[in-house]
Structure formats: C-alpha cells, structure tokens
Amino acid sequence: MSALLAVLFLLTAASGTAVVLVRDPGRQIFAIAANGLVLTLLFTALQAPDVALSELAVGVAAVPLLFLVALMAVRAGRPEAGSGGDEA
Amino acid sequence: MSHAMDVLPYAVAAWLFAVGLYGIASSRNLIHLVGCLSVCQSATYALLLGLGYRWGSVAPIFYDHPPGTPAVDPVVQALVLTDIVVGATLTALLLVLTVQVYKRGGSLDPETLRPMRGGRTPDSAPTSGSKAAP
Amino acid sequence: MSPRARLALLAAAGLALLPGAAATLGGLPAFGSRIAEYGARINALVPGERHVANMVSAINFDLRGLDTLGEEFMLLAAITGTVVLLRGRRGEGMTDRAMRRPGRAVRPQTEAVVLACRVAGVLTALFGLYVVLHATVTPGGGFQGGVILASATLLVYLGEGYVGWRDAVRSHWLDAMEGGGALLFALCGLVPMLVGAAFLQNVLPLGTFRDLFSGGLMLVENLGVALAVTGGFTQLFLEFMEETRAADGPEEPGEDSA
User: Fold this and answer.
1) A75, CA 20 to 30 Å: which among C86, C93, C139, C196?
2) What torsion do the CA atoms of C195, C200, C203, C206 make, to the nearest 10 degrees?
3) Looking at domain B3-130, does it have CATH number 1.10.287.3510?
4) Is B105 on the interface with C (CB under 8 A)?
C-alpha cells in the first residue's frame, strides 16, 4: 500500500508538471485529462471515493471539454476586422 | 523508504503549487495559463487529502464496514469534493474571459495585453452604457 | 515587466519562502500517522446521531451545511457570470435558437453512433440519478451526480447533432434548475426557522441507518445541489458550444470551410 501511494503521488507530480510544460493548448488538453485521471486514482487510493467520483466526472470529462470548446471558439471566432485593429 | 513517505505527499503538494506558479508566470498563452492554475489547485487537493489519510483506515462510508471502524478524515474530503466542482465552474468563467480577451484584442498572449479603455470600441457599446442612455 | 525579470522575481520569492516551506513540511504530522480530532469525532458520532452512512455527505449537507450554501452560491455566481459574458455579447434574443456558422458543413451521424449514444445516454443519466439519490448511503451525492447528469445531455449532442440537442435542452429550463436548486437549499435553511429550530437544523425524521431515505433534511438539500449542478453545468456546456457557432457580423463565405 505504501509503495502504491508513493508511486501515485509521484505520478501526480509528474502529470502536473506535464500540464505546465506542454505549452501548446491543443496538446495541453490531453495532459489535463491525464492529470485528472491520475488524481482520480490517487484519491481512490487515499480512501476518498466521493472525491474520486467527483474528480472523474469533472477532471476527466467536464474540464477538458471546456478547454477544448474554448480553444475551438478562439480558432473559430477571429477578432472582428477593423474594430480590433484601430484600437490596438 | 518509510521516512521519505512521511513527507512525500506534502512535498508533492508544494512541488505542484510551485510548478503551477512557474507556469503562470512564464505562460505565453492565456488558455495554457488557466491550465497551470488548475495545477496549483490540485496541489491543495494533494495536501488536504494527504493530511486526512491514516494508514490502515477505511473510507468514511459505513455501509460495508460497521460504524466504529477506523476511517480517514471526512472533513478534508468534503472540502476537496465541493472545491473540485465549484473550481470547474470558475475555470469556465476564466476560459470565457480568455475568449473575450481574444475576440477584443486578437491575441492570447498576456504580454500583448493592453489596458481596456471603456466606451471607445464600437463593439463594447451594446453591452453597457449607450443602450440604456436614450 | 519583461518575462525574464518576472521569472527572476518569482525565483527570488521562491527562494525566500523555501526555508519557511521546508520548516512547515517538516513540522506537519508524518503522512498517515493520525487524523484531526474533528474528523475522528465525526466518524465516531454521526452514524448514530444522523443515521447516515456517508460521512462526507453528512458534513456537506448537515454539519457544515452553511459552507455548502456558500459554495452553492459561488457556483451560481460563477455560472451567471459566464452566461452574462457570453450572452451579453451575443444578444439575449438568440438564446433559444441554434445558431449555425455559414459555410460549415453539417455531417449527419451514422446510425451506429445514434444508437450507441441513445443507449449510453440513457444509461449515463440513470447512473447519474443513482449517484444523486444514494448520497447518504454510498459514495456520491448532488455534486458528483449533477456533473454526470450534465454529461449525459452531451451524449444527446453527440447522437442527435447540435440542433437536436438545442431542441431537447432548453436554456430557460436550465436557468430555472440552477436558480431553483440554490433556492431549495436556502429554503432548507429558512423553513426550519418557521418551526422554531435553528437555521439549517435537521428537523425531518432521520430514517433508518443504511436506508435510501435516511438523513432527513439532507435528502432535500442534496436534491437542491443536484438540480443546481446539473442545470449549471449543462448551461455551461450549452453556452460554450454556442460560442463556437456565434458568427459575429457577416462572414465571408469560404473563409471558414475547415
């Protein structure tokens, strides 16, 4: 049990670092989802099934989806021609 | 091994917070920055749940185990549980602000952000003042 | 401030804080050695006092119910802020109509995808309801179940397409769920005061331990949270999706045929 928890904590540190170091937002979404999955496993091992369920629904599904859609919105909606230009 | 395990969870929490902060300070993309903020947030989860854990204890749900079985701390779990869900909505709010910044300024790089000047852009007019005035 | 200067400042601040952080880490109780007395007391007393098996739900909805009320309104405020930002730009009149970007091809779903999404959507919704209802017995509750229920509506999007999703999920229903859930929670606090009890005091019959209907007032509060979280997250998904569609102003055809 001790070794399992140690490995999961180290994995959490590694996946959190990966979220920071992956600079391209499109790829970062996968790092965020992986981080959510590792956190879910960690919470399960820490005897927190309630928190793990919440992290599974939020961290693996909802938050990456929001990031994905925000990225799509940025790519789809180019800034208005003209109004952004003369102001900047 | 066991001595290292005594502080490992807290060290991981500190590392996550520090690396998230580094990401925020060095980020060149606002969407990436929001992701780094969520790493800072996960540091609090690791710290709180680490503080509430006890070796050989069961989850604080007395369905399969009779009440009285040694269980881990439920208070920190309740804190983290609500924080995850409410934090996700705040992430959504930040992402929307990011998208708005992009639509107004045309860039996601925090270095190129300019202070907003109210009421001068043509597209900021319908959201506030001028519609109510006449 | 240049990026280099900012990182230098961050490193200096980190170095200055390092001794304090190290001392704090060393001073914390060794991992896994003991838990706080408050939690231990709750584990010992609450199953008998409140007849619920899930201590986390008991803390969220009963012992620290006031904190959850605050969280509930934080949730409401964050979602309201998001919706106001998006709709204020888009115009309130467009809320119930599916917008379509000109020039984007609409590909019909294959029958296999539609079938899989219909089956999985119903199952996900059922699982979400199960998680919500068993809040006081097994791991789960309004927060987790609400997010699962909101994800189930996304399967409608995947299976039926965007227009079908917008027809099935009405924005003003979601507003009502979101606000109604928060109102229900607030009423759970106020109604006990009418009968002379304290704010959020658990005045309903507590039920039997390990039974689905145990916990009294907690069940109502849990329902309020589930309504607010389901409505709120579905609203978030909906407004975000709409944002990728919102074509501001006339678009040149062919510009966005990606």
Assistant:
1) C93
2) 170
3) yes
4) no
Integer angstrom CA distances of residue B41 from A14, C11, C20: 15, 20, 21
CA distance B72 to A47: 7
User: Closest to A74 (Cβ–Cβ): which among B23, B55, B99?
Assistant: B99
- Average model confidence (pLDDT) for chain B? 84
| Span C157-174, average pLDDT | 86
Query: In this complex, which of A70, A77, A80 lies closest to C240 when CB atoms are compared?
Result: A70
C-alpha angle C52-C54-C56 in degrees, rounded to nearest 5? 120
Cβ distance C59 to B74 less than 8 Å, yes or no, reads yes
A54 Cβ under 8 Å from any chain B Cβ = yes
pTM score, two decimals?
A: 0.86
**Of B16-20, B62-66, B114-118, B121-125, highest mean pLDDT:** B16-20
* B window 82-101, beta carbon within 8 A of A: 84-85, 88, 91-92, 95-96, 98-99
C15: closest chain B residue by CA = B18
pLDDT tens for each residue of C215-245: 889 999 999 999 999 999 999 998 888 887 7
User: What is the distance in angstroms between the CA of the first residue and the CA of the last residue of chain A?
Assistant: 57
b vs e for C199-224, b when ≥16 Cβ sit within 10 Å of the residue's Cβ? Answer: ebbbbbebbebbeeebbbbbbbbbbb
Residues of A at the C interface (Cβ-Cβ below 8 Å)?
Answer: 49-54, 57-58, 61-62, 65-66, 69-70, 72-73, 76-77, 80
* C-alpha triplet C131, A56, C127: angle, nearest 5°: 25
* Residue A58 DSSP one-character state: I
d(CA C240, CA C221): 28
B28–A9 CB contact, under 8 Å: no
Q: C226: which 2 tokens?
A: 């589930």
Q: State the smallest CA–CA distance between residue B54 and chain A in angstroms.
A: 9
Closest-CA distance, C140 to chain A, in angstroms, reads 6
Q: Distance of alpha carbon C88 from its chain centroid, rounded?
A: 23
Gap between the Cα atoms of B119 and B96, Å rounded: 21
Give Rg (Cα) of chain A.
18
pLDDT for residue A83 = 41
Q: Which residue has the tokens 């989806």?
A: A65
How confident is the model at residue C246, as a pLDDT? 57
Q: Is C52 exposed, middle or buried (0-12, 13-18, 19+ CB in 10 A)?
A: buried
Domain boundaries, chain A: 2-77
* Single-letter amino acid code for the residue at B126: P
Distance of alpha carbon C99 from the chain centroid: 26
Per-residue exposure over B82-93, b if at least 16 CB sit within 10 Å of its own CB, e if not: bbbbbbbbbbbb
